[in-house]
Amino acid sequence: MRRVIYTVFAVLLLGVVTYGLSKLEPAAPAVERATVFIDEVKRGPMLRQVRGLGALVPEEILLIPASDEGRVERRLVLPGSPVEPDTVLLELSSPLLEQLVWDAESQLKATEADYANLKVQLESQRLDQESMAAQVEAEYSEAQARFEADQELAEEGLIPNLNLTISRANAEQLAKRLRLEHERVSIRDPAVEAQLAAQQARIDQARGLMELRRGQFDKLKVRAGARGVLQQLEVEVGQLVTPGTPLARVSDPRRLKAELRIPETQAKDVQFGPLLSG
């Protein structure tokens, strides 16, 4: 009987304990004290401060690349020095560019000489043409005077009509030649202008090529291109560079921005935009 009573009592006790545990609410989660803010609940803005290391860096950095292939001959400015847009930072050398500049200058001189020669030739042709027109005009005047004289003599019966016919034909032929010579003189000027314009276009093309080559050669003196401070020189003396190779970096110290490094655990608390009040 005692064993039965103990058993019944244990079963009843287990039921009571189970019923009591089922009525209990879940326990609140535990957090560390350093990770929470304890304060009274109230309405208004809440400031969350996140600290991190940082530095002031330039807003814009001008990267100066090489425009042509060359070799670094001299470094004229040290990093940290103030520079102006025309300050020469580096001097490069390029035998190929020197040869191209010389060829372009020679070509320009040759085209200018061809223009002068063409102008002299056209002027000589103009004089010859005008001389020919003057000669035909003189021959026509003489033939016209002879025809008029023969016409008077023929009316008086002093010369046969055959002579009059010959003198008339000669005068008419010279009149046609004179008209053709005048037409040649009139159309000569547009033709001369066209030839000179074509040669002038060759001169302009050669001059443009020469200026391009000189500009490329002038860029062998690498300039800062902006006012600021030379941050870094990317090349050494004697180094061979190709087009696009970074040569130097220039920044403006008057335009800086703060660059902060926030720990990864706090980066989620940083948001862009204005704070909103409740």
Q: Give the mean pLDDT.
A: 82
Question: How much is the radius of gyration in Å?
Answer: 51 Å
Intertermini distance = 71 Å
How large is the count of helical segments?
4
The fraction of residues assigned to DSSP E strands is 15-25%
Keywords, separated by commas or semicolons:
10 strands, 17% strand, alpha+beta, Helix Hairpins, single chain, 52% helix, 278 residues, OB fold (Dihydrolipoamide Acetyltransferase, E2P), 4-stranded antiparallel sheet, 4 helices
What does this protein structure show overall?
This protein has helices spanning 2-22, 95-155, 161-218, 264-267, and strands at residues 53-58, 61-65, 70-75, 82-83, 88-93, 221-223, 228-233, 240-241, 246-251, 256-261. By secondary structure, the chain is of the alpha+beta class. The protein folds into two domains: 54-94 and 221-267, OB fold (Dihydrolipoamide Acetyltransferase, E2P), CATH 2.40.50; 96-218, Helix Hairpins, CATH 1.10.287. Strands 2-9-7-4 form a four-stranded antiparallel beta sheet, with no helix packed on it. α2 (95-155) packs antiparallel against α3 (161-218).
Concise synopsis of the structure shown:
With 278 residues, this protein is an alpha+beta fold. 52% of the residues lie in helices and 17% in strands. The protein has two domains: 54-94 and 221-267, OB fold (Dihydrolipoamide Acetyltransferase, E2P); 96-218, Orthogonal Bundle (Helix Hairpins).
SSE inventory with pairings:
Elements: H1 2-22, E1 53-58, E2 61-65, E3 70-75, E4 82-83, E5 88-93, H2 95-155, H3 161-218, E6 221-223, E7 228-233, E8 240-241, E9 246-251, E10 256-261, H4 264-267
Helix pairs in contact: 2-3
